[in-house]
Amino acid sequence: MQILHTADWHLGHTLHGLSRHREHGAFLGWLERVIDAEAIDALIIAGDVFDAANPPASAQNLWFDFLARIGHRDRHLDVVVIAGNHDSAARLTAPEPLLDRLGVRVIGRVARHGDGRLDDERMIVPLSDATGEIGAWLCAVPFLRPADLPRAPQEVDPLIWGVGEVYREVIDLARGRQQPGQALVACGHLYMVGTAVSHLSERRILGGNQHALPIDLFPDDVAYVALGHLHKAQRVGGRDHVRYAGSPIPLSMGEAGYRHQVCVVTLEGEAFAGVKSVPVPRTIDVVRVPAHGALPLAEAMDRLTALEAGDLDDGAPYLEVSVALTRPEPGLRAAIVAALAGRRARLCKVSVSYTGTGASLADAEAARPLSDLGPDEVLRRRWQRDHQGEPPAAMVAAYHELIDSVMAEQAP
Question: What is the Cα gyration radius of the chain?
Fold first, then answer.
């Protein structure tokens, strides 16, 4: 059985104000070809289909056009989508009657019966193999907010324990359906221990580093775990069968060096037989001057004037320029724009670092825009401004709960 695992598309994303529509369209066309070339039986999209709870019409058009194309095929394909922390569960599941006819199952929220039991008809999905028989049972768990979790005993971390209980319950229910020769597969949108995070584009969830989830969340009889949330493709805990697929395109300038990919997973009966990473072609380059670190202003200008000449269009590379200064330069951006005249590069970001003692701390702090700071860093800086030391753990936990509640209110 062949399963394709992908995640974190972030349709509707903009990079410093520039639309990613062209890149996403190219990715979806390429993905359709991979599904055919690899004879895929099931497609798992592990959350963050959209970049925002209320995505633009152009992003929704890409989504529904893709589903319509892969739904009208000669060869059967199971498609399972879970909501991520960027998605609106209500928006994803609203067209459910239509999607069911296309063979697309969307799990937006944890589904429970009136007595509190999990609805296994919603959260456990049969996946058909090439013969049309059930080859695997998928434990499909969407992004979990604190309100989705059971009440925890006082002596344990309520978030880590609560998430573990949801996954334990879902996996136990799937075991009850499993027959000999059928595999158990799980998918989720969460943050695991020992993983690499892109701080500029991955919104922290369930407390971030302080509530990273342990690898034993997934027992050994789960053949493959398809994860979403982290944009860098990676194994978890050194296990080949527990993976983040990563995002298909770089979602911040800092992700330019990522190897964007999808994962093609092979199951043989109940067992994991291997995984192949298929690199996603990059439609638009991401260029940083310099590639690492920062350059003095004069050297940076020389590098810019040496860039490829040509006309600007929506396929021109994205550009970040990183400059090392000894004092503030009020006309810096205008000077960089002038140096780029006639160059085929779209300036997205100017990063500044200060050397020596020519700049005050306030000037150095002002060089970083608020959009570059994650919520945790904003809290830490504000706390250190008004108090001493780091914010207490109880304050951080309350802050994360507040962020989660605001995000839930913004979702339609």
Answer: 23
Q: How far apart are CA 376 and CA 369, in angstroms?
A: 15
pLDDT at 10: 97
pLDDT of residue 151: 87
Res 186: pLDDT: 97
Backbone CA torsion sign across 402, 404, 405, 409 = positive
| Separation in Å, CA 366 to CA 52, 159, 295, 353 | 27, 35, 19, 11
Q: Is the separation of the CB atoms in 408 and 145 below 8 Å?
A: yes
Residue 306's φ and ψ, nearest 5 degrees, are -90, -5
Instruction: Confirm if 89 and 121 have CB atoms less than 8 A apart.
Output: no
Residues of the chain with pLDDT under 70: 74, 194-211, 356-374, 384-386, 388-389, 393-394, 397, 400-401, 403-412
